[in-house]
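pipeline/complex-builder :: batch 7 item 3
reading input block
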Amino acid sequence: MNILILGSGGREHALAWAIKQNPKCDRLIVAPGNAGIAGVAECADLDIMDGAAVAAFCKEHDIGFLIIGPEAPLAAGVADAARAAGILTFGPSAEAARIEASKSFTKELCDAVGAPTAAYARFTEAAPARDYIRAQGAPIVVKADGLAAGKGVIVAMTEAEALDAIDDMFGGEFGAAGAEVVIEAFMTGEEASFFVLSDGTNILPVGTAQDHKRAYDGDKGPNTGGMGAYSPAPVLTDAIAQDVLDQIVAPCVAELARRGTPYQGVIFVGLMIEDGKARLVEFNARFGDPECQTLMMRLGAQALDLLLACAEGQLDRISAQWADDHAVTVVMAARGYPGAYEKGSVIRGLEALPATSRQMVFHAGTTAREGHITATGGRVLAVTARGATLAEAQAEAYRMVDAIDWPEGFARRDIGWRAL
Ligand code: GLY
């Protein structure tokens, strides 16, 4: 089977790496890909936001299975266009992807099924939003309703911060994404990510992970897309996971099906856990990045069988086989990230590192230039290792980080600290 993956990050490198190991995979193409992905797949120049172009590319290259990595093409309806063209596709329709593309949609969905989440209010004008914040006080969470490249959620510890966020959102800083704003009660506890496949009817958990969103050690500094992750997440016990499936995921999936917009793809369930109870922080319509890197390292080749069963509506006939192990991903980012950073610095030492089922450097923002790998993004490498224990996986990931010669990059040194 020829397979096309859309995306260019560490998530898509990890997906490509796992899928390529499955004998069902013949030709593997990733669009647009990156310098690391080019080591496991062909990279193609394709506008991944253009559903008609993606469908035409699939026909031209005899693609039997399309996997959509990031949220933007999902929200733009690329899965709809591909399915309409008869292409087996992993990823929800634009309507179902609203679980990520519209915060108020998800809050309303939770209301409809009684799923536990923070109390909220939604606003399309600044003045009542400001009044609401003054009445509620801080801490409080202000969210742009639409997709804002991971920057649309402000956890405001003071009223002034929350009011500034309202000014920014209604002032157009997030474009159309900020035309509506959701304001939520601040939740305390520990955050964890739960990944569940849905074929529209059946659901299947495929792993847990925890992300480190702040840029610097000790969870300090600005928010980022994620500076590292580990799987499994010990805070998400089997009992809590079952409650989340029963109280949040299954009812929401059933409600989406009842509305005639079944969800097919992965649901990234962002949770806040306190006193043995989980509440929904957010849904995403894709795998997390860098959480996906830890999941793919642990799942390996079976990832393709799971994604295929999901796309074919056969999740009731398959289950994930887990080794009793752990994986850690340490993100190496360009100095300055998540603010301004230089592009084009040369990364050395990668070729000497192992590339095995236990150790991989997944590329996120890299390009091959004049025989060198150069950094072209904020998050650049996702150094991933697997071990019998979390400590072993962490030690190996940092051994690899330390072997990479990239003075213009930095990494947190404490990925996994909470579970260790
Ligand atoms: N690591 C968080 C995310 O992918 O949204």
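note: The domain at 190-317 is CATH 3.30.470.20 (D-amino Acid Aminotransferase; Chain A, domain 1).
queue -> next item
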